[in-house]
Amino acid sequence: MTKRHLGVLVCAIPGLYLLLSPIYALLHYELFAAEIPHFLRYVLIPGVLAVAFIVVGLFAKPQFSLLVGICGASLLAGLFLFEAMHTVSVVSVRLGMFGQLSEAQAETLTRNEKVVPGFTLRGLNRLAGTDELSEALLSGFPSTQVVLCTSNKGVVSYTADRFGFNNPDHVYDKRLDVMLLGDSFVEGFCLPPGEDLASRLRGRGLSTASIGIRGNGPLMELATLGRFGETLRPRRVVMVFFEGNDWENLERELTVPWLRAALSPNANYGLQATAKETMDQAREILAERKNAPVTSVDLLTRTALFRNFVALQQTLTRLGLVYPKITQSNPEFRRILHRAKALTESWGGSFTLVYVPRIDRFIGPFSSDGPFDPLRMEVLGAAAAEGIEVIDLQEAIRTRPEPILMYAPDAHFSRDGAEFAANEILSRLPAVPESAGQIVGSN
């Protein structure tokens, strides 16, 4: 092989790799190329670099093209080695998030009928064949031990309350000051009992119930409020919106006919009693799941691990060069806020939205709020249009000396993050007259 051919070959390696980004972005134009920051990041810059490598390989002097190609290919190989190192650490974190157990832990879990692995309500309702909102599973399983995750310190779990949520059961013995709606951030993902957001608020004197399950989106949270709000009549309802996946979760939820019915002013949200058959079916489904061990194969089937490796996701995230998908407008979100506020005010309570930013905003020397803010502006704008108070944790966390410490390796709140968020919420919650509404017994 001549120097000319060798130079073309080694320049083609980084050149063709860099072309993958603009090709993928243009094929998914509305998500990765329709706005200027995304076009620059995913199309123009990698496209120009790709063309430069290919032109040098084809037209530069063989010695120069060989030098450029070797440098480019070597740099690319180094980036992939760095990516591989971090992917290995991600695998252990993700397996823990899925609830990977040791043989002894798995045996204990199998024997104990009161223990269930983590779940999403949307997934269980799909498997159970739910087709009516009033019969849907909108909570966890009462008095059941729920596995949140596993870590090098063992299994992190909680015992569900009388409704199936992560609270001590006595929290319902008096009127609730705060009902927290949300996903895994509200459920307290991978935080030991007493260190989650709701527990932190209880520790500061507010009678608080976490009404959140991993995987929930805004529409599922509205349905949950519709079922449990009138029964519990909290003085304040706080919906926690997570920037990382709540918008995408909402898009998926809106495709489910029975769940979309929650938007109707005349929606029949049902009771625990009307959902008993669905809950029994869901228990059977989870009983089968807990006998199946979590393996590394799950990371390929349940996550985008391979795609992210090819895209150098971990490496570019640490540089602050990974941008979220472009926000698609969704007017249904405002309808959800309108309906949630109306339900809350029907018993004299107040409704507040909390905005939780994703960890990616605060990682790397090139991190910027710009690519993330369109979604934030969409959410805050919808809340403002409905006259809803917003507690924006993005602004608060940005003021911290090391914002990254507010998050755990799994990108949820760390212990410090949960405490910080509780302090921010406590300091900004609107006052509600103590006489507003009455508490009613369990349904």
UniProtKB/TrEMBL annotation:
Protein's name in the database: SGNH/GDSL hydrolase family protein
InterPro entries to which the protein is assigned, alphabetical: SGNH_hydro_sf
Transmembrane region(s): 6-27, 39-60, 66-85
The keyword Transmembrane helix appears for this protein: yes
GO MF annotation: an example: hydrolase activity
Protein keywords: Hydrolase, Membrane, Plasmid, Transmembrane, Transmembrane helix
